[in-house]
Structures are given as structure tokens and as C-alpha cells.
């Protein structure tokens, strides 16, 4: 879409200035009303203590600035017929966004009981931060929002994610000077090195310097102007400054800055799209720096201390209003200073002047469909997994790197979405390290800086997003998903903890959005955790942490899914499933090193459908008799060790009735009432018969398995091996030995736990013990694993 | 300490140039040798396949740059007698730091078997990334290091933390262009706004632009020079550029840049310390930008593809060397290109020329005591907790905000360390929000930007560190602790997840360092988690996450401690303990809202010593008879609800023999073999008698308690209530009701689980049920909690 270019420096005429100011005052009035008022919303009578809420909760400080920005976004959206979103970084200023949504009518369309009149205004006020009402922050409940802004740091990354592959979209993004101090936000400025002016929308950062955080001045707000300007230019922007505390002047300045910014964006787009990305000059994107007082237009002082323009305006500028008559009087003066009688008619409806620059229909910020991305979401044209599946004639005889096989699948998916451009792959400089590089056949890595001859797989229109920041990968992906697209984030397993807190927030968002009928389902956030704990040959202890699974299992079970495919085909089946799913956070853990193929694609699919099942071919159960022991496993390395243990036991103790169970969907272990994928006790007992010892080799920290199964009947018989935080730069087999999860240890565990077997099989056990001992000497001498381990194949020993 | 000023632009004379180049070549040779060689370390015979390691692991790409920097730091340390540390951000370039430590002799002093001769060189080579040897990264095992550089992002924050309160120290910090893309690093640049030129040391950032990460060009390396310069100036630095690929020219340029940087630092210090911080101009600190090729001096090409200067040099520039004769030949040529015969004598000892600029004794980077901070650590002059304890005549009748009481204690501690300056408090703009503001009586918040009249508690010499970045708080604190000082990080409970991964790394560091006899114990890293899940009245769901405790319990038990003091005096007792402790990560969870005082200081202390105990005064056990049920609790809000439940049960069911157990040290629940604080089964069964129902009200996610206790005898009788991820902006009591942890629910749980009681107490249970029902209506109407809840006091109902 093209925008009409207007000469810079345009001033508002008096009517437009008056209209914008009226809208701003109305929004400020409605914001303060939400924080304070329980009744008397239009101040038709003198304010009395009982009109005021008994608990005053909310954040006033940032609110007038947000209202100013919303007012001026309305103006340019209307004037230029823009398709625009706004990400409100200071989302704790919830009253502002709610007030604006109510003014423009999108709130009433979403929540019909909150009518756009005095009765609705009373409801709007009362419900805010009130039990049974709405949260004090921008939240999933807020129309037009894709960003809560509770945990600060992610606004700008969300904005860029929303802009990707939305070439007609403008994403304004308000960044508070507090949020600007966070690491993720500081890194997000460089997102402009990845945004294509041809294929992507534009992001307009609005840095709001109101001077203070909760209790301190903000670092950027106190920088000398020249230093701030260097910084923002160095970050690739052309800053436009809007500064002041006199409303009329600020309105004029803001209108000019908005016009100039949008003109420049239109020019950048025009050049890039006409000349082509290569020929056009590298853009320097505009941004706005808005410097206005914290708590602007609120009480100047309280009890003799300055409030407006200081950190004291952060939350409630006047407290104790019910009991302090002076504060009550001050509150009434403050509210009346907006002249509500000019802004709302006798029935509480906003005046025509207030609404004169408010956009219509889906152009309203509270009604833009991009902010309810499920409305725009289309199912992916997934390739048939069979096209990439590996043939498996016999289990455990061939090796494939699971993620490399997935790479081929993603390559096909990239090819199928080349025109639609609604799928992207995200990773912290690790797509190739994670062996997904086949995807570069169909697309490249997004890159807007210079490209040299020696570079590979870089292009302005690439759909693989790589930057050495998990925060950016996660933030971009969230923004992309929340606006109705699909994606996958591949990460080193240990370093996904970097985004623990972002994942928390996204899960909380999904859990709440799922309960709102008007929020349409989104594509799930899919993690591929690879380069995992067991194979950090290059990097060692710092790169070993399988605890992300534990982290997500603390969260709402309706949102969280965890898969541990044991081989390449199972990974394909899982990928095919998670890319179809909606409103979940799917965590898939899979290795990048060659790993034995156990299941052909059909078997893999039906195994994934069950989520956990007996691998009859791997066990030695007699018909009709319960097994002596169960060897269970979850994860690729544990499966290999468990099967090697089974192999040893079959060979040395052929009379032992052993069952092998593999778990791919970890939530299956939970009781049916605790998770939608949970197994009934009956099904669970069918897999793990009460009274029979279960030796469970698990990919991660072993106690997770205990936590998931603590209420099961045979829990006392469960013995779990996993990663117990022992590691360094060493061989793959030494890693499992150090953590007591190796094949010999597992086999010894079985011997130790089957009643009577320890004595009978003492010599077998001793030989296993000896191999482990021999291992320690061998690796110190040779630096490689024992030949019998390195050369092991399923069934070979048994046949021999 | 003063440094002699030298005129800028000094060139190296030929002898010094030759000496520096020899040192650099020696370090490069030793680095490549570590990655490749198993034998023949001095290349005294032609290189054969069996001289090469079977598994090639390590990172060559960054290594020559690190060696260059080390060589030139040696020069200026020697020339100026500097007390200096270096933080190696690209710590995966471990071979470089090991090579330099071996050259300067600090390695042999630390590990006498790795002698500074041919035999030792052979050991140095062999052990690298070899089973039983040393990790491939800089690690606790590496002399002179306080930073692993495995998970990238924290180098600069560590460097600033090391510099704080070390006015004589220079902390050089190498930042890779990959790491520079991370959020935490991007935020860390602003640390210079918190560093006092009077009281703190200097940080010299060296941004190493070698162009590529693992697989991609780096964002900063590809910026146009002018844009990069604006960025670094905007970040408050005066950059000095060293660029090239011709060694002699780069040596000259690097020497000039180092001299100029150190001269400027000396001037800044001199001005600030002579004129005073207020009068001196705000410093613009120097930094160095080093632009050299990735894998510099390594193989230019491999199999026809460029390696040197590209991402292909990141790890192993020549692979498959044992089996590929061409690669073997290339490796030998490469190694011989450093002319080892000039660098080492016939017995493998470094030549006098190589060592001519290496500093002596503790001035060596591998031997500086600041990098083994325990050597410098002094016990804190802790104030007596009794000075701040609150009087408790009867339990549950008075209220105090625990963190406010702790604030008074910390204030005294700040006063007692005013001269020593070895204790700091860290927090993300939340010290006052967390109610610790009494600390400002003794010190202020560190702030180097402009201070306005309206500001409070800001000063250049303040020892409270506040910035809106948990990453910076954590990184600074880690650097401060690792160099032998003390600190406390207070955080909103939910947002401490932002540093989950940093905590992982620090715990891994401590776990490894504890096993090294030469690493001396450090002060523990102490977290105060407050503004916790149950009291997010202002902020709601996004601010509710008690899962950090789960996160740390996955880590090495020898390092992790978790405390949940139930009231103010218990918090004081815990604080007194954790501030004395060494080499732990202590997580203390406590509320900032007024909470009932249960224990006087003596009782609090003995309760903390036990870690978990029966509160006889709160129960109703008969002598000699086992209780009918146990009500257990951990955390301030759960304790309040459990005691209110006990109160209800005493009043309505006086015949019930109820035991109340409070747990303050959560690891006590673990078995004795699993954690140093773990309880024996006998002690555990003494608290929680097998066969008796236990209703456990826990502060966080309930399944953690199951995980800690799954092997205990009475586990089947354990029923845990906690946070189950339900929340919004609402009242305190509504929060516990939403999560089924309220007093009525707990009392009903007891009734439901004591055999036979449900029938007998049906009417009592019904009344409790009714109150919960009434609560829902009440809060929706009034917005406040039920009067009987808000007005509850321990024992009042029983007496009445």
C-alpha cells in the first residue's frame, strides 16, 4: 500500500488541535477514572469517599503519554488510511489502552455490556483492577493487544515479529525509558538489520522518556541530548524529537514528527520496492523520541512533595483518598481539570469532537485483525512426512541425525510457503550447528547489512532468522505467531533457559487467551531443543542443562506439551503434529548427532499417537505373564542406552522377561485429571504393572519423572536415571557413565531390582561392572569410547 | 595508584615488536597444539597421524585475537605495573588463556605436573578437551579466570562487578562480536553510568570484531564504520580502533591504542580523585575496537574453501587430520609457520625473548588474586540481628513487613562496611518497592549521570545498585562476589526467572570451583525473592511465578540452599546465616507486606537451625499420642493460612489432635543422602508420622514438595496445596482461594483426610464451604476481603 506524501512541518489547524486535545483529555479522564472511581463516573455530583475504590491499584505515570501517542496514531491512521498496530511496551499503563478502546468503540464491540455511555463508563471504571474485573495491565483481555508489558523488555522484538511478512503493516512500538534498560530491549534495536523494506512492514519505535522508573531516573532520559542522539543513530535510526510539557506545543510537535516519520517510511518502502532491495540505499528508519513528564496532567504535588514529573507518579499519585479529605479534593480537581462535561454528553457518550479523528472499523487499533492473529491464521501446507522419512528395515541397524532429517522436511515446508510467507525458522546462530541447514535450499537467512562474496545463505528476503540472541528469536517468533503466522525456534537445549521468563509470559498469555471466546486460536509456539545435554562434546558443562522441560511443566497444563522423539522418523511425526496444533507451547527435544533408527514412519506415527507404548520387539515378555522388570526410556540417548541394556540382558540372562517401554509424549505420565494428555491409572498400570520394578532412563533431571508419577500405584518400584549435573568436555559414552545412565548401569539396576536375580546373575553383573571400570582407563588413554560401545548395534550381540 | 603518563602515538621499537610477536606466535602455537596434538609437541619429528588427537574439539576462530590481546596486556601491565584482570568474553577460546597461563608460569604453579618444558607442554596439549583433562572453555579450572564465556552475554557485567570498589584495579574485558548481539551484553554497555571513577576501578572494553559468529557475520562487524562509531560514542565510550591482518602493523596499532586508553583512564581517575567526583567532568571512558580476521594465522583455505577470516574457522579449521594426508600436511605447515624452534629451547622452555614482556608474580593475569577472590575475602562485620528484631509477646498478634525489618538490618550492615566497601545491594529498580529503603540511611544508589534536586538517594559513591535489568544486577553481583566481596540481590520473585540461565552458570562455576583446592571459598550469592506470587495486587498474573526454587533444585545440591522464613524475625535469622555462608547460592523467599509475627528472635534462630520443626503452641497434640493429622506450611502466606486453618479446626473440632509443622529450610525435606541439609528418614517420620495425613500449604508449585519427599514412608498421605497458576489483579485472600490454598480449604482438607472425620464434622465442613462461597460474592461487590478474613488474628477466635 502507498501513502500520500505530505510536506514535513505541517502544523495542526486550530480545529484539529482542539479535537486531538479533546480526545487526549477524554482518554486521560477515563484512565484516571478507572484507577479511582467506583461510582459517579461523569462527576455529575460532588466527589464523595464512597465514589472512590477501596483499593487503589494501577499505574498512572506512563498513562498520559500512552494516551497522547494513541491520540496521534488515531490521527495518522485516519488521515493515511493506515493498517496499523501498536505494541504498548509500558503495558502496565493498562488504563490508557482500555480508555482508548472504549472511546473508539472496539471495547464495546468486544464486551457488549460495557456500553459506550454513562452506564458502560461506570462498568469500565469499576471493573479495572477489581475482583472479577480486568487486570491492571494490558493483557489478552485488552482488545487490540498482542503484548502485556508486565515483564518489561520484549516490546520492540514483538513489534518486529509482527511486522515480518506483513508488507502493508505499520507497527508502532512504545518503549518506556525503564524498559529500555533491559537486556532484551537493548538488543532489540538491532532488529532493523533483519527487516526487509520490501517484504516486511515497518516498525516505528517511539521511545518515551518520562524520566523515571518505579523509583529512579532512567538511564536514557538522563543522557546528554547529543549522546542520546549518537546512540540512536548508531542503532540505525533517524530520531525525531518531541519534547515539552505544554499540551498544545507537544500536540503540534507530535503531529509533525508522526507525519515526518510516516513520510520517511513511505519513501524507504517506495525506494526499496521500486528499485529493488539491492539497489536501494540501506534504510535508516525514523523513530520518535517523546519526552514528557511522568504523570503529566496529574497532581503536581502531594503532601508538599512533587509528584508530576517524578517517580512518585508511577502508580497511584494520590493515595488514601477515602480517608484523606485533602486528597479527595485534589482528586476531584484533577478529574475536573479535563472538563469531562465538554468531552461527554449528558448520557456519557463521547462528543463528536472527541471522536473526530478516531479511525473506523478494522483500522481502529483495538480492532485491527492482526492483533487477534487467529482471525488471519491459515493452516500450513505441510509436506507429507513420508517424503523425508528414513527407511527402517530393522530397528537399530541404521543411523540418521534426527534434526538433519527434520531439516529436509522444513526445507520442503519453506518451499511450500515461499509465496504465502507465513512460516519462519528462528535460531541463535545455530541453524546449521543444529543440522537444519537443508532449509537453505528453499530460503536464506534474513540479512539487511552488507553481504560479501564469501558469505553463504544470506539474503534480504530470507525467512530464517538468525541472531546471537535467544531473546530476539523468542520475541520475534512471539510477535509473528500472535499476528497469525507459524514458526519454529531451534535452540541449544541449555540456552533456552535464557528465555525461561519470556516463555512464562507467553504461556500465561495463551492460557488466558484460550478462555476468551473472541480470541481466535493461534499457531503453537514450537521449540526444537537440540545440541542437547548428552552431546556437548565441544563445549562441556556450561552447555548441559535439560531443565527447560521441568520449567514448562510448572505452567498451565492446557498449554504445555513436551515430546522426546527417540529417532528421526518419530521426530518427523512429532513435527507434523506440532505444526498443526494451536495455542500450545510445544517443547520437542531431539538430537543432532547420528542416532539409531528404531521405527519406520508408520510405526513412529502410531507410537506418537499413543504417546507411550511397549516396544514388543525390544523386550522379552512371555505371552500371558507379567514381565520381571520394565526398562523405560524417554529421549534419544536414553533410548539407545536402554536398548543396549536390554540387548545385554537378553544375551546374558535370556530367561528374564523384560518389557521395554518408550515414552515420547511426556505428559502421558501424568494422571488423566492433571493434564489433557494424562493417562488413566488403568492404562498406566497396563504399561507399568504394579509390583514390577521399572528402571527409567530419562533424558533430563530424573526427579521430573518422579514428580509426574508420584501418585501412581507402582511408584515405589520406580527407579529413574538421568542427568545429575555431572559433565565436562568428554566423550558421549563417558557422559552417560558419569551420570549413571549408561547401558551397563541400567542393566545392573535391573539385576539389582528383580527379586532374587542379584545372586543368580552375580557373575553377569560383575562383568558389567568391569566394563565400566575398564571404560575409565580406556578413555583416559585413548580419548575415545570403548570399541564395544562405539560399535554396538541392536541385536548384533544377541545374534552372535 | 597512579600511572605514568606517556605521550600518545608511541611506536614499538624493533626489539619490543619482535618480542611481542614472538610471544604471540608462541601462544598461537600452544593454542593450536592443544587442539590438535597428542604427541610430538615441539614438532621435533615430522607430523604423523598418531601425533594427532582422535577427536578434534575446540574453538580456534577467536583464539589468535585473544592471544594478541593477552600479549599486549602483558606489555602494559609490565610497563605500568598495573593491577589488572581480564574477562575473556569469548571464553570458548580456552586454548588461548591456557597457553598464556602456561607461558607466564601461573599454570605450572597451579598444576605442578604441567611443567614449563617439553613434558609439560605435552601434558598441556593432551589434557585439553580430553577425557580426564580440562574443558575446552575457560572455566574454573583456568588460572586467572572469573568468567567461563560458554553461555555468552555476561562478560562486560562481570567486568564491571569486578571493578566496583576496587579503585586500583584495571579490568580489561574482551567482547566478541557474537556476544555483542545478546541482550545482557547490549544492556551492559550502560554499566559505565554506575561506575565511580573515585571509588571503583576502570573497565577497558575490547570489542573484538572478527567478523563472524558460528555460522553468520556479526551485526556489529558489518556496520558501516561511522555508524559503529556513533553507537559506541552513544554508549558513553571513546573508541580507539585497531584494524588489520598484517601482524607488525597490528602490533604497533594495538600498542598505541593500549597506551592511549590507559593514559586516558589515568587522566579520568586523576581528575576525579583530585577534583572530586562532582567537580570533574563526566568521563567518557576509552575502549578498543580490534578488527582482525577470524582464525587469523590459521589455514587460509581448506579443500578449496576460504577458512581464515570466515565462520569456517570457528571451531576446527582442519578436520579429519588423521585420515586426510593433505590436511595433515596443512596442519604441519600451519604449526611450523609459528617457527616453534625460535620460541622454545631444546627442552621446550619458552625463550627469554618470548617471556621478556611477561609480568611477574601476582601481576600475571593468571595469578592476580582478584581472580581467586576467596584469597581476598573477609568476613562481614554483621550487625547483631537482635538490634533489629521485632518483639513478639504472643504469636500472631502483631504484624511487620519482613523485608522492611531486613532493610533496617541491611542499613546497619551498610554503615558497618562504609569504609571497607565490600558489601553491595543489587536490585532492578525495586529496592524501595521491596521495602528495603531503610538502607538509604547509610548509603545511596550509585549514579553517575546528572542528579536533579527532585531526586532522592542518588550519589556517585552509593553502594546500592539499581538498574531496570535483572541481567545487570546478577552479572555485576557475580563479578563482585568472584573477586572476593559480598552482596545481596533483591528481586521480584517472578522476574528472577530472567536470570535462570545466569544462575545455572554461576552454580556450575561454584560446583566446579569447590572441587579445586586452590580455588578459595567465595561469599555466597544471596537472592531475596520478594514481591512474591501471593501479593501481586497491583500487577496480577504476569507477576506470579514461584518456580525459581524448582529451577535451582535441579542443580548441584552441594551449592543450593532455599529458605522460606515465615515472618520478620525468621528472615533476620536467615539473613544472618546466608551472609556468613560460603560458596552457596542461597534463595530466600519473603514477603514485603505486613505479616504476622510468629516467633521471637531466639525462637526464630533455633527454628532456623532445625530448618523444620513442630510448632507445639499452634497444634493440639496430646502427650504420647500421635496426631490425627499434620498441617505443614512453608512460606509466609501459607503459614498464615495454615495457622488460620488450625485456628478454625481448634475452635470447631477441639477434640482433633492436630500437629503444625513449619519448614523454613526446604532442603530439609530431601533425604539425607540427597542434600547436605536432608533429613534422615527417622527424623522425617518423627515430624510426619507414617499413616497420618499431612496437609502441606506450600508457597510455590505444589509438586515440588512431592518431588522432594517422594521416597518418604508417608508419601501416600501427603496432600500439597500451593500456587497452581491461577491469578489476576485481585485481593490477597482471593489469590489463595483461587489456588485452593486458603484456610477454609486447608481445614476442609484435614476433615476430608482424617479417617471418619468427614461424617462427624459434616456441618463444620459445610460452614467452611459456605464462607468460601460467600467470599466470591463479597469481593465482587466490595472489592475487599471478607471482614472475618481481614480481621483475623491467631487465637482470637479460640478465646472468643
TrEMBL record, chains A, B:
Cofactor(s) listed: thiamine diphosphate
CDD domains associated with the record: TPP_PK (cd02011)
Source taxon at top rank: Bacteria
InterPro entries given in the database record: Phosphoketolase (IPR023962), THDP-binding (IPR029061), Transketo_C/PFOR_II (IPR009014), Xul5P/Fru6P_PKetolase (IPR005593), Xul5P/Fru6P_PKetolase_C (IPR018969), Xul5P/Fru6P_PKetolase_CS (IPR019790), Xul5P/Fru6P_PKetolase_N (IPR018970), Xul5P/Fru6P_PKetolase_ThDP_BS (IPR019789)
Gene3D superfamilies: 3.40.50.920, 3.40.50.970
Record-annotated Xylulose 5-phosphate/Fructose 6-phosphate phosphoketolase N-terminal domain positions: 13-375
Chain ranges of the Xylulose 5-phosphate/Fructose 6-phosphate phosphoketolase C-terminal domain: 592-794
Signal peptide: none
EC number(s) on file: 4.1.2.-
GO biological process terms, semicolon-separated: carbohydrate metabolic process
Keywords: Lyase, Thiamine pyrophosphate
GO MF, one annotated term: magnesium ion binding
Homology family: Belongs to the XFP family.
PANTHER family in the cross-refs: PHOSPHOKETOLASE-RELATED
Record protein name field: Probable phosphoketolase
Biological source species: Streptomyces hoynatensis
